[in-house]
Write a structure and sequence with these properties.
Elements (H helix, E strand, L loop, with lengths): L4 E6 L21 E10 L3 H12 L4 E4 L15 E3 L10 H5 L1 H24 L11 E4 L3 H14 L7 E4 L16 E4 L2 E3 L2 H14 L3 E3 L4 E7 L2 E6 L2 E10 L10 H4 L3 E10 L4 H7 L5 E4 L5 E5 L6 E5 L8 H15 L8 E11 L6 E5 L2 E5 L6 H17 L26 H19 L1
Parallel strand pairs: 1-17, 2-3, 2-12, 3-9, 5-14, 12-19
Antiparallel strand pairs: 4-8, 5-7, 6-7, 10-11, 11-12, 13-16, 13-17, 14-15, 15-16, 18-19
Helix pairs in contact: 1-5, 1-9, 3-9
The structure holds flavin-adenine dinucleotide.
The site of flavin-adenine dinucleotide has 44 residues, from α1, β4, β13, β17 and α9.
Length: 440
C-alpha cells in the first residue's frame, strides 16, 4: 500500500507556502522603556485588526508577540468564513441571553462578515477570498432535525439565507453518502488565512504600527501614568493595553487564563489531485462541516486542486504524523475515493473557547481584551472584535458591541490547564459513535 505521506511532507501549514509568517523585526532595545499610546499583546487577527484601526487614526501602536508575528491560530485556520453561521453553533442563544440580545448578536455577526469584506476591499488585501457558501452536513438523520432548527433560528430575520437540502439534493454541494442532508448558506465562503494575515501586517505597517516578534509579555502593571508591560526583552510603557492572546493566553493575565480553554484543532492538505477530482466531491467549491460534536470539515484549496481536511485528531497537542493517520481515516469515511491520496502538510493550532461558548470583548482592571472564537469562526469574529476594541480604546463609539457586558465565567479550580478537555472529548466521541450506531 502506498504511503499516506507525500515526499517532502511538512508539519507546517499549507498556507505558509504562499504567505510565511514574518519575524516582526521592529526592534525593541534591551532594557528599554519604549513608550507607545497603545500596546497590543498578540499578533493574530484580533491584535492586528485593532492595530490597523488605531494606526489608521494616528494612534501610536506597538504590537508584540511571544513568537514570530502571526504564529498563533490566525495563520493556521482552515479559512472558513461566515456571519451568523459562525456564532451560537453549540448553544441556544435565545435561552441564554433572551430574544432581543440574541437578535443583536446574530445581526452583529452578519455585520462582522460585511466589515471583513469592506476591509479587504478598502486595504486591497489579496487573500483568495471566495463567497462559495457552506454546507453543514447532518451525520445522522436525527442531527438533520437539529440543524433544521438552527436554520429556523438563523432565518428569523426574514431574509431566508439558510435552507435545508435532503440527501438526494445534497449532491449539488457535496458528493458523499456520509451525510443525511444538511443546511446550506450562500452567505459564507473561504480564504487563505495566512494571506489575509500577511495583508493585515502590510496594512498595519503602512499605518505606522510597530510589530515586534519574539517578545513575551510576562506582566502588566497599572501605574499612575498608564501601564508598564514587562517582557522578556525589557519594559514597555503605554497609556492603554489590549490583550489579544486567544488560545495562547498565558500567565501574563491569570484572570483571563482562568477563563479561556485552549482547544487543539488539526488540518491536513492532500497532494494536488486535480481540479476535476476535487470538483467531483465539492461541485460548487463550498466549505463543508459536519454536525458531530467532534467536528470534521473539508474544503478545496484556493486553486481548487487539493482537498484540505480537518477536525479534532486529538483534544491535546499531537504529533503531526499521528494526526495525518487519524485525519486521513476520517477523510476516507467522508470521501472513500481518497484512499490512495497522500498528504503533503499537517498542522495544528489552539482555538480559544469560553465556558459559555460566546466570544469576549471588554475591560478587566482597565486592560482591554478581545478573545475567543469558540470554534471555526475567528477569522471574521476576531477581526471584528479587534476593530471594536480599537473603537473602545479611542472612545470613538457610544454603541457597545452586543458581545460586550456578557459574563466571562470560569470554573472552580481551573487555572488555564484544561485537564477536563480530553475527558469531555472522549465522552463527545462516544456520543457521536452512539448516535451513529443508533441511526443505522
Ligand atoms: C486548526 C485551526 C483551524 C481553524 N479554522 C478556522 C476557520 O476555518 N475559520 C475561522 O473563522 N476560524 C478558524 N479557526 C480559529 C481562528 O484561527 C482563531 O479564532 C483566530 O485566528 C484567533 O485570532 P486571535 O487574534 O484571537 O488569536 P491568535 O491568532 O491565536 O493570536 C494570539 C497570539 O498571542 C500571542 N501571545 C500569547 N501570549 C502572549 C504573551 N504573553 N506575550 C506575547 N504574545 C502572546 C501568541 O503567540 C499568538 O500569536 C481555526 C483555528 C485553528 C487552530
Amino acid at each position: 500500500m502506498p504511503s499516506i505521506f507525500a515526499d517532502g511532507f511538512k508539519d507546517t501549514p499549507y498556507w505558509w507556502e504562499a504567505a510565511p509568517p514574518i519575524t516582526g523585526d521592529d526592534s525593541l532595545p534591551t532594557d528599554s522603556q519604549t513608550e507607545s499610546n497603545v500596546i497590543i499583546i498578540g499578533s493574530g487577527f484580533a491584535g492586528l485588526s485593532a492595530a490597523m484601526e488605531l494606526g489608521r487614526h494616528g494612534v501610536d501602536v506597538t504590537v508584540i508577540d511571544a513568537g514570530i508575528i502571526g504564529i498563533g491560530a490566525s495563520s493556521r485556520a482552515a479559512g472558513f468564513i461566515s456571519g451568523r453561521a459562525g456564532v451560537s453553533k453549540q448553544i441556544n442563544l435565545e435561552k441564554m441571553v433572551g430574544e432581543r440580545h440574541a437578535t443583536a448578536i446574530l445581526e452583529e455577526a452578519d455585520e462582522a462578515y460585511q466589515h471583513f469584506q469592506r476591509i479587504i476591499a478598502r486595504e486591497d488585501i489579496d487573500c483568495d477570498f471566495n463567497g462559495n457558501g457552506r454546507f453543514v452536513g447532518a451525520y445522522t438523520p436525527q442531527s438533520y432535525e437539529a440543524i433544521a432548527k438552527k436554520t429556523e433560528e438563523y432565518n428569523r430575520d426574514g431574509q431566508n439565507r439558510f435552507f435545508m437540502v435532503n440527501r438526494q439534493e445534497q449532491d449539488t454541494y457535496v458528493k458523499s453518502d456520509y451525510f443525511h442532508g444538511g443546511m446550506v448558506t450562500r452567505d459564507a465562503g473561504s480564504l487563505n488565512p495566512a494571506k489575509y494575515h500577511a495583508g493585515l501586517v502590510k496594512t498595519c505597517r503602512r499605518y505606522g504600527v510597530k510589530l515586534i516578534g519574539n517578545t513575551r509579555a510576562t506582566k502588566i502593571n497599572k501605574t499612575h501614568a498608564g501601564f508598564t508591560v514587562t517582557t522578556n526583552r525589557g519594559n514597555l510603557k503605554a497609556d492603554q493595553v489590549l490583550l489579544a492572546t486567544g488560545g495562547y493566553t498565558d500567565r501574563v493575565s491569570p484572570w483571563h487564563q482562568k477563563r479561556i480553554i485552549p482547544m487543539s484543532s488539526t488540518i491536513i492538505a492532500t497532494e494536488p489531485i486535480g481540479k476535476s477530482r476535487v470538483d467531483a466531491m465539492l461541485p460548487l467549491g463550498c466549505a463543508v462541516i459536519d454536525t458531530r460534536r467532534v467536528i470534521r470539515f473539508a474544503r478545496p484549496s484556493p486553486d481548487g486542486t487539493r482537498l484540505l481536511f480537518g477536525g479534532r485528531a486529538r483534544f491535546t497537542p499531537i504529533d503531526a504524523r499521528k494526526s495525518v493517520r487519524i485525519l486521513h481515516s476520517y477523510m476516507r469515511e467522508m470521501f472513500p475515493g481518497m484512499a490512495d491520496v497522500s498528504i503533503t502538510h499537517s498542522w495544528a493550532g489552539f482555538m480559544a473557547f469560553t465556558f459559555d461558548f460566546l466570544p469576549k470583548i471588554g475591560r478587566h482592571d482597565d486592560v482591554h481584551y478581545a478573545m475567543a472564537c469558540n470554534g471555526g469562526a475567528g477569522v471574521v469574529m476576531m477581526s471584528w472584535l479587534g476593530f471594536q476594541a480599537a473603537r473602545n480604546i479611542m472612545q470613538s463609539t457610544n454603541q457597545p458591541s452586543a458581545f460586550e457586558g456578557l459574563p466571562f465565567k470560569t470554573m472552580p479550580f481551573y487555572s488555564g490547564m484544561p485537564w477536563f478537555v480530553p475527558i469531555i472529548g472522549t465522552w463527545y466521541r462516544f456520543r457521536d459513535w452512539y448516535d451513529l450506531r443508533r441511526s443505522v
